């Protein structure tokens, strides 16, 4: 059995499923994701503007948990949770009932540093058109996305990207000030 390592997971939803509002979908999914390991830490729920602009706002969150699952098995388990919540993969960056992204698994780099760097440096135009056909770790957009970094800073501020050497907090602080525009923690209801 493998030694448990920290897994970082981003959660998001901007579509109801079976009458369940996005915030409740994310909250329920957090329990499902937490069952994949131990010691789960969860961020607050955040409201974030849709990307690309024009769709309904998202509810985003982040989790840190310890798991002994290998990366491919963890990703498959996350996809199974998405499917239970009605996730359909029909439009890149389209509205969704649930989106679970495996952001990082310890300091693992997949499939290798060169491939991760290519995907991390992909131009914005190509990002909207191309998706990798294999698991890329750390997630190649982690350093660019305020809606990932703000919640992630609540559960793993000191996690350090193994290739670029910056912590989550460093990456969040490096974003342009308007990157957080329209984002806010949701009030507990």
TrEMBL record:
EC code: 2.7.6.3
Class of enzymatic activity (EC top level): transferase
SUPFAM superfamilies the record matches: 6-hydroxymethyl-7,8-dihydropterin pyrophosphokinase, HPPK
Keyword line: ATP-binding, Folate biosynthesis, Kinase, Nucleotide-binding, Transferase
Pfam families listed in its UniProt record: HPPK
Gene Ontology molecular-function annotations: 2-amino-4-hydroxy-6-hydroxymethyldihydropteridine diphosphokinase activity; ATP binding; kinase activity
Domain called 7,8-dihydro-6-hydroxymethylpterin-pyrophosphokinase: residue spans: 92-103
Keyword Nucleotide-binding: yes
Associated pathway: Cofactor biosynthesis; tetrahydrofolate biosynthesis; 2-amino-4-hydroxy-6-hydroxymethyl-7,8-dihydropteridine diphosphate from 7,8-dihydroneopterin triphosphate: step 4/4
GO biological process: folic acid biosynthetic process; tetrahydrofolate biosynthetic process
Family label: Belongs to the HPPK family.
Biological function: Catalyzes the transfer of pyrophosphate from adenosine triphosphate (ATP) to 6-hydroxymethyl-7,8-dihydropterin, an enzymatic step in folate biosynthesis pathway.
Name assigned to this protein: 2-amino-4-hydroxy-6-hydroxymethyldihydropteridine pyrophosphokinase
Source species: uncultured Rubellimicrobium sp
Lineage: Bacteria, Pseudomonadati, Pseudomonadota, Alphaproteobacteria, Rhodobacterales
């Amino acid at each position: 059995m493998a030694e448990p390592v920290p897994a970082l997971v981003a959660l998001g939803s901007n579509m109801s499923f079976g009458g369940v509002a996005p915030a409740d979908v994310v909250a329920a999914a957090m329990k499902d994701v937490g069952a994949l390991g131990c010691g789960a830490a969860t961020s607050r729920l955040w409201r974030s503007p849709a990307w690309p602009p024009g769709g309904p706002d998202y509810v985003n969150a982040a989790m840190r948990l310890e798991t002994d699952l290998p990366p491919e098995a963890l990703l498959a388990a996350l996809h199974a949770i998405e499917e239970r919540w009605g996730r359909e993969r029909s439009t890149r960056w389209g509205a969704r009932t649930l989106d679970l992204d495996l952001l990082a698994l310890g300091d693992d780099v997949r499939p290798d540093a060169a491939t991760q760097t290519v995907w991390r440096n992909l131009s914005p135009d190509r990002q909207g058109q191309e998706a990798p056909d294999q698991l890329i770790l750390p997630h190649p957009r982690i350093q660019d996305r305020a809606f990932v970094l703000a919640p992630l800073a609540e559960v793993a501020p000191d996690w350090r990207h193994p290739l670029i050497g910056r912590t989550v907090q460093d990456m969040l602080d490096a974003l342009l000030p308007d990157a957080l525009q329209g984002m806010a923690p949701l009030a507990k209801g």
